[in-house]
Design the sequence.
C-alpha cells in the first residue's frame, strides 16, 4: 500500500495538541469539521486492546461546538432536533439527532445545556453552524451563533476514572453519565463531562483556556504512567463493536432518524415544534424502507473502497456496507450496513463483493457487544 502525507493549510485546521500528538507518534489523520482528527497511533488493533484495558488521552478538538446564546436559543435548538428538550436541565448532555425539513439527518451531536439561554452543540462532521444561522435568520430569532474556542481532550478507558481522580480529586467520580460540571486545574476552571466516543467509560474536557489545556494534556501523561496511559483516538473497532454511529459514514443527509435506529430520540407525540416533524410522522405511518443494522462477514480483512454493495444469492442488491473492520473479538469482519426492506431481518444471509473478492455473511443486531 502506498503512503501519502497530508498537506496542511489554514483551511485544514490544526488543534492546540497537534504538535504533541505528532511527537507522540500519530500515524494517520482523518479530516473532521475541517480539522485534523487523529485516526491511528500505529496498530488500531493494539490500540483497541489498550483502550479496553487501560486509559487513553484523545485529541478530539475536531468535535467543534456551535454556541447558541440569547432569548430564542432554546427555541432554535429545539427546532433543529427531533428529541424533546422541554424537560432538559442545565449541566446535562443530550444526544440529539439534528434533522432538516425533509426529516433527514443533518448531524448527531451531543447538546450541552449551559444555561437557560446558552447551549453548545458538540457536532459531528457537517457544517451545523450555517444551518443554525440560516434558521435563525429565517425565523427572526434573537440569538447569537458562534463557533467558540473549545478544544476537547477525551480521557477514555476503564482507568480513566482513577487518572482523572488523581488530577481533579475524588469529586470527579461523582459525575453521572452525560452530566457535566466545572473542575479546577491549577487555577483554571474546565468544563468536564462524563462522556466520550467509546463504551469503555471516561470523560471529555471542553478546554476553553488553551494554555491550561495544553498543560493539562502534558500532566495527564505525567501522572498517568501508573495507569499505562497512552495517546489514542476514536477507535474504529471499538466503536463498531459498541454500535456508536458516525455521521457521514453510517448515515448522512439521505437517511432519516427512524432508518438509523434513533427511535428513542424521536419525539413525535409531544407538543414541541421541530423541523421535519410532519414528514417524520408520515414516514413512521408508511413504515421505513431501509434500516441500519449490523453485519458479519466471513473475512479476515476489509478495505472500505470500491463497491460496498451487499447482495443476495441471486446477485440482487439488498443493502450497502457503510462501515466495517476486522474484529479480534469475533475473529471476522463486522460492519454497519443500510439494508433494504425486507432484508434487515437478523440472520438474513448475504454476499459482499469487495475488491474482487466475494465474502459470505449475515445480518445481526446492533450493538455487537
Ligand atoms: N462527544 C462530544 N462531541 C461529539 C462526539 C462525542 N461530537 C461528534 C460525535 N461524537 C457525535 N456523535 C455521537 C454519537 C454517540 C454518542 C455521542 C456522540 C454517545 N452515545 C451513547 C450511546 O449511544 O450509547 C449515549 C447516548 C445517550 O445515552 O443518550 O455517547 O463523543 N462531546
Sequence:
Amino acid at each position: 500500500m502506498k503512503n501519502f502525507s497530508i498537506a496542511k493549510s489554514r483551511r485544514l485546521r490544526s488543534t492546540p495538541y497537534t504538535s504533541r500528538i505528532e511527537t507522540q507518534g500519530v500515524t494517520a489523520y482523518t479530516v473532521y469539521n475541517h480539522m485534523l482528527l487523529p485516526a491511528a497511533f500505529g496498530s488500531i488493533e493494539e490500540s483497541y486492546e489498550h483502550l479496553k484495558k487501560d486509559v487513553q488521552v484523545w485529541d478530539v478538538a475536531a468535535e467543534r461546538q456551535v454556541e447558541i446564546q440569547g432569548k430564542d436559543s432554546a427555541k432554535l435548538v429545539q427546532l433543529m432536533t427531533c428529541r424533546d428538550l422541554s424537560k432538559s436541565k442545565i449541566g446535562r448532555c443530550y444526544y440529539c439527532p439534528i434533522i432538516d425539513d425533509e426529516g433527514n439527518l443533518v448531524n448527531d451531536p451531543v447538546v450541552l445545556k449551559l444555561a437557560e439561554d446558552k447551549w453548545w452543540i458538540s457536532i459531528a462532521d457537517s457544517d451545523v453552524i450555517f444551518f443554525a444561522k440560516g434558521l435563525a435568520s429565517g425565523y427572526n430569532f434573537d440569538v447569537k451563533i458562534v463557533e467558540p474556542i473549545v478544544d476537547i481532550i477525551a480521557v477514555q478507558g476503564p482507568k480513566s476514572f482513577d487518572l482523572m481522580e488523581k488530577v481533579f480529586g475524588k469529586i470527579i467520580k461523582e459525575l453521572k453519565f452525560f452530566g457535566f460540571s466545572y473542575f479546577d486545574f491549577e487555577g483554571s476552571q474546565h468544563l468536564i463531562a462524563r462522556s466520550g466516543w467509546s463504551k469503555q467509560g471516561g470523560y471529555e474536557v471542553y478546554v476553553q483556556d488553551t494554555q491550561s489545556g495544553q498543560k493539562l494534556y502534558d500532566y495527564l501523561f505525567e501522572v498517568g504512567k501508573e495507569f499505562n496511559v497512552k495517546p489514542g483516538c476514536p477507535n474504529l473497532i471499538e466503536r463498531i463493536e459498541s454500535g456508536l454511529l458516525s455521521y457521514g459514514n453510517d448515515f448522512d443527509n439521505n437517511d432519516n432518524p427512524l432508518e438509523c435506529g434513533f427511535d428513542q430520540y424521536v419525539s413525535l407525540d409531544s407538543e414541541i415544534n421541530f423541523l421535519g416533524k410532519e414528514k417524520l410522522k408520515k414516514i413512521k405511518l408508511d413504515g421505513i424502507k431501509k434500516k441500519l443494522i449490523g453485519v458479519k462477514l466471513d473475512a479476515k480483512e476489509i478495505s472500505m473502497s470500491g463497491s460496498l454493495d451487499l447482495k443476495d444469492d441471486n446477485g440482487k442488491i439488498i443493502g450497502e456496507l457503510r462501515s466495517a473492520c476486522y474484529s479480534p473479538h469475533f475473529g471476522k469482519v463486522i460492519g454497519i450496513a443500510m439494508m433494504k426492506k425486507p432484508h434487515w431481518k437478523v440472520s438474513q444471509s448475504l454476499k459482499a463483493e469487495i475488491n474482487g473478492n466475494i465474502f459470505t455473511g449475515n445480518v445481526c443486531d446492533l450493538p455487537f457487544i
The chain has a mean pLDDT of 96. The domain at 289-369 is CATH 2.40.30.110 (Elongation Factor Tu (Ef-tu); domain 3). The pocket of (6S)-5,6,7,8-tetrahydrofolate is lined by residues 63, 95, 108-110, 122-124, 152, 178, 195-197, 204, 244-245 (CB under 6 Å). The first strand starts at residue 28 and ends at 32.
